[in-house]
Design goal:
Layout (H helix, E strand, L loop, with lengths): L4 E4 L4 E6 L4 E6 L4 E7 L2 E6 L4 E7 L1 H5 L3 H5 L1 E11 L2 E12 L2 E4 L7 E6 L11 E9 L2
Parallel strand pairs: 1-11
Antiparallel strand pairs: 2-3, 3-6, 4-5, 5-6, 7-8, 7-11, 8-9, 8-10
């Protein structure tokens, strides 16, 4: 049986936006990297305990349909990732700053969600897990 593991990494996350390359990177500090899973504009890092501990979204403004300036002025975010039956689900919440006012980039009911089905790989088997990282300050 593939029991689900949980990682609460509150206070250990960081988020960096590279305006020039339009790349948004989330990562959890102090985790041991094992390998990456790539799919279209997404690169997800998996650690030695089989948690998704990092993600890079290339061309984030095109992927989300939002202006790059919104990500440049991002002040807070939340990241959730789960692996269940070889499906990786990633959910983001963003808060940006426009004219000195904090504005959620998505509504309370709408988050940015991406699901990726990963083919089985005996060398890197995916085990069910869930990661929650809230209150990530952007840098």
């Amino acid at each position: 049986m593939n029991q689900e593991k949980h990682l609460n990494a509150v206070g250990k996350g960081e988020c960096v936006y590279d305006y020039k390359y339009d790349t948004l990177t989330f990562r959890i500090k102090d985790r041991d990297y094992k390998y990456s899973v790539e799919f279209q504009n997404f690169v997800m890092d998996i650690d030695t305990e089989n948690f998704v501990t990092g993600i890079r979204i290339l061309d984030i403004s095109k992927v989300t349909g939002m202006n790059k300036i919104i990500f440049k002025n991002m002040i807070n975010s939340e990241f959730r990732a789960s692996i269940k039956n070889n499906v990786i689900t990633v959910v983001f919440k963003f808060v940006g700053k426009i004219r000195n006012k904090a504005i959620p980039l998505f509504s309370e009911k709408q988050n940015f969600t991406q699901q990726i089905t990963v083919p089985g790989n005996p060398r890197h088997p995916l085990r069910n897990s869930e990661v929650i990282v809230s209150n990530i300050s952007a840098s």
